[in-house]
Fold Copper resistance protein CopC.
Amino acid sequence: MIETNKDNRMTYLIRAALGALLAVGAASQAALAHAEKEGTRPADGAVLTAPPETLGMNFDMPMRVTLIALTDQDGNEHALTRHDGMQPVTAFDAVPPALPSGIYTVEWRGLADDGHPMQGRFSFEVTD
Ligand SMILES: [Cu+2]
């Protein structure tokens, strides 16, 4: 009887572990089906010796960027000029003002063509 209980417990643990693995697999498959940010301009963590002329994100499916904000290390927001007309794009670009040296973060939100809301952030540094 004790052995049987042990076996049952082991079976339960194995089933639970397999279930968790399957859940992780399903989640990553679902994520693959969604739009993902493929890259940013500049790259996340980039250190630039000159201010960037544009800021942007690449997507693998059209994305309507609903909000984008550029903030410096002091929390000051720097206005961006965008030319996408709020239309879905796979390559989004916005033009920042001339940026002094500092550390900047871009935060964005969007609505992918499949209807899913997306968001992201990336940072870069401008040095003298
Ligand atoms: Cu999606």
User: Anything to note?
Assistant: The beta strands are 37-41, 46-48, 55-72, 77-78, 81-82, 89-95, 102-112, 117-126.
